[in-house]
Amino acid sequence: MVRACRLVYDTPHALPRLWEWQEPPIGHLIRHARTFSRLVVHRHCPPWEALAGEHARLWETHYLRSPMSQLWEMWEAGLAESRALVIETQAMAEEHQFP
Asked: Is pLDDT larger for residue 73 or for residue 88?
């Protein structure tokens, strides 16, 4: 029987975390959960193949959704958008300065 743990975040934007089953990472995971008040889910998988299958399912459905190039393009678009917002905010601040 394989003991596995993973963090659960309470935000809808967070991806489900992969399962940890080795001892040093489980200890770090539990310490992280206690420090930042996170929830840790424990699971006992009878065969190793069940845990490997769950890992494969999580990886294929959540982490391999889009190629890295698409993520980079999204990041660049967001960066350009935030730069435009900063420029607009600076212009508004300059307009409303008192003499």
From this structure: 88
